[in-house]
Amino acid sequence: MGKTFLLRLLLLIACMDPRAEVHAYDLKGTGDLSTVGRVAHRYRAGEEEDDIAYALADLRELRAELRRRAKVIRELPKDLCPESKVTSALADMRKLGLHPIIVGVDECQKWFEHPTHGGEFEEHCTDLVKRGPALGMTLLLATQRPDSKSLPTGISANATLRWCLKVMGQIENDMVLGTGSYKRGIRANLLAWADKGIAWFVGEGSDARVVRSVYLDAVTADALALKLYELRKAAGRLTGHALGEEPEAGTATSYDLLADLLTAIPAGTSKTWSEDIVARLAELRPDVYGEWGPEQLAAAVKPYGIRTVQVWGTTEDGKGANRRGVRRADVLAAIDRRDARSAKTYVHLTIFKDLHEYVEPFGVAVGGDSLKR
């Protein structure tokens, strides 16, 4: 209850730091984050195919930025970066390009449940949530019920800061705050309907605590965004969407990892070493896979239900060796699962459309989940 207001507040707080680059996605499509869009580097409202293409292009760019930042950090002198992570002092050095990047997504389940691109969204967000914090990149995800479909476990398990506003039951409570929270007395379901903006918060310090967010209605939020726009403009910190510079949806390199894997594991080959796969992928699309190693491959295929296995092979000098690799059959099975999900979604939408046309003349309303008598 109130997650969109809280997400908008967190994004506006991020906008108050003129260094911060904000990416805001309103997958509900109602424009609730439009005030943030005034100063955001990337902003989109909706879940149509062009919106999905826009978001994927942005996430691919962010993954590339993640790799660039890792290289910058790796090459910095230890006296400037002793802990191998971005600090506020390093973020102040504009030439390094290590400014804070904050990505906020409302109704994030729309990404992860997408019948075609859900796996890629999961792949990108898993990498960002795991490696992003040390590199000055933060991912904020909001959803009503973070089960394994709405918020994949590889992402939720690495979500260190969690806010839980009022929820209806124990299960939802523990989904957000962690298993066993309800038994320990951390119970967001006991919040009253009047407790708008009040949440249980975990992740900072050893104990969970109740916090209250600041209430900003749409008019106040928009006035604040206008002020922030002027301050950023004066500081020369407006970029991307805030300057009216909109990349065309899908301008980033479009690729299908599963299809590329079939190229890297050619027909007639049952399984291939991971190191050989990433080498072939790098030749195929150097801008996408150029810096991948076996570890990145293993993380990228996991969201599709593919796991690396032991593969016996022969090295260049003729010696036998057992190394991690991928089975072609597993890639084909993952493609079949994806295609089946896509077909199922199409069938459901078609049935819903036909049902609506049949019953509408009789004054019967068709809801998102049921047919009302």
TrEMBL record:
It comes from the Bacteria. This is DNA segregation ATPase FtsK/SpoIIIE, S-DNA-T family.
